Amino acid sequence: MHLAIAAAAPPEFFFEVVALLVTTALVAYFCHRIGIMPIVAFLVTGALIGPHALGFVRDEALIEATAEVGVILLLFTIGIEFSLEKLSRAGCKSVWSSPWWRGCWRLLAWIGGWACSRGAWSRFHRRPS
After folding, report:
1. CA neighbor of 22 nearest in space, from 12, 14, 11
2. Average confidence score pLDDT of the chain
């Protein structure tokens, strides 16, 4: 019995995925040797081979799918490193500081939105003639 292997062309995104994986492995290796966390390597890789830098990966669907997987892995990593002991040591500091900072950022965003609605942005931004 003979097995026939189909000699079809690889999918369009194959070379982009290979470029993504090889570049990620290289950058992660160098970041590990320097002592930088792997998540930095993944961010640097995305910036390097994305459409706005070297342009190895141009398929937007692939970029979005890879970004979603990256966010899932990041949240998984944070969940593994999360410790109730560290949270209990932070105590009241974390409980009170978070709403305070959130309120400050909301106020700043409101002031910026109000200023832009009043035409403050038009003083700095001139349309080309």
Report:
1. 14
2. 77
Vertex 31: Cα angle to 30 and 34 (nearest 5): 90
What angle is formed at CA 105 by the lines to CA 38 and CA 97, rounded to 5 degrees?
Answer: 75
13 Cβ neighbours under 8 A, 6+ residues apart: 59, 62
CA angle at 72 for the pair 75 and 48, rounded to the nearest 5°: 105
Torsion of CA 38, 44, 48, 52, to 10 degrees: 140
CA atoms within 13 Å, Cβ hemisphere of 43? 7
pLDDT, tens only, 21-78: 888 888 888 888 998 888 777 887 888 888 888 887 887 788 788 778 878 887 887 7
Residue 116 has pLDDT above 60, yes or no: yes
